[in-house]
Predict the structure.
Amino acid sequence: MSLYLVTILTNMTLISFIAISAYLILIVGEVSFGQQAFFGIGAYVTATSTALLGLDLVIALFFAFIVSASFALVLSFLTVRLSGLYFAVASLCFAELLRLSLYKVEYTVETNSGTIGPNGPEGFQNIRWIFENNISPENFLIIALSSLLALILFLIFMESSKLFKNARLVGKDQIVAQSIGIKPFVYRVSFITLAGGVAGFGGGLFALFNTYIEPSMFGIMLGVHGLAYSIIGGLGYPLGPLLGVFIDIGLLESVRFLSEYRMILFGGLVAAILIIFPEGIISPRLVSRIKRNLVKKTNA
Amino acid sequence: MLELKGLKKLFDGISVLNGVNISFQQGTKIGLSGGNGTGKSTLLNIATGFLTPEEGAIILNGDNITHFEAWKLSRLGVKRTFQKVRFNEALILKEQLYTNNEIIKKNRDMLEGAGIIDYLYSFPNEVPLPILRKIEIIRALLDRPKYLFLDEPSAGMAATDLHNFGEFLKEYIDADICLVVVEHRLELMKKIDANICELRDGKFVSGNIIV
């Protein structure tokens, strides 16, 4: 496989984590414009864990998950009374607050291979984990892809659980949810927290792959893309966000010759897909129809 | 016993309930009637935790539960249906019973008797309204409520449907449930032999009613 293709596939895998985290929040009926911040926190935590503290990959990514999930937990408590537009704005503010705070985080250490540690606007340089461990780009892709696969399989497995069904009901109609004894608060908090952790995990992989991170990488456009992918792909099934990523990055990459016009195409594509598939391609209704047909077939 | 004591509720300064007292005893059937805007639905919303009153208390078996949220009341066995049926258009009805296959199997007789078994794999927009209303009630019944509030269940139903619907209520609502029907038409309440209480100007017409 060419290095170009490996890089594109790795980027698609990494951004899928943001798309899935946006998806998890959309399931409970909210729109978050702040998932990039959790991605960024995960990236900084992983960079610190591996480069400064010399921790293992698994432990570093575990920390990335836990720390970003904790920040998301704080967000979910702060926004407990907000929904719709107000939650969207609050999540964006929270994300910008965290991102701008990173400009002030400075803790650097000089080593033989250069300066490491967060250095305000200059970012965190020399995250040398992949070099130190001799990880080839192909092998890194395998690590990232298998983590994503594990996450997707987990979500597919959970899809038929009471937890996810109730969460979807909370997202659709809180009044019905309450009338059958479901406490919306619990589902909101747990899904926003889980979403933060998933974004943070992806951010951790991103830091290792990129070997250099800075606060400006975690701006709102990253979150907006993640959100757009899950909306294009559809909220019916965990594969939706992946389909969104695949369509979009696949297309954006194949039209690189259009250079700066690519983003115009991106906007147009999102609009066109949503006109044809108002609820995304893998919509909840489509999934229900397929399930119903499968049941009919097995009964027949 | 579920007791509402001295309930007052204002909407934008306009008094909707003005010192309402009523008790709901398990095993009774009550019809709440009254014209439009007399506070029937408000009373139902307060009794089931979807609204909180400005003044007054809600007492369940001696415990003050005035500020309990709706989900908590639902878990305590105080359940409701909606004036306009609320279903997710993208899910088949079986999924919207929010219960497991075991309970569905156990209650197969009821689902068959109510005539809804053939609709379980349909989407809400493929199903007539009386069936949807029954499904909302069955969703509540499968969770064994102690108090069941129906908000205008006859709205949009033809006379023949109404008869069938009344029979359904008589047949499948257990004797130990307190059934409260909020309606401005009396046919259904008479059909199920409910004690009828009338709200007017935010109060019960014949004073405080204990049933």
In short: Residues 159-172 of chain B form the longest helix (14 residues).
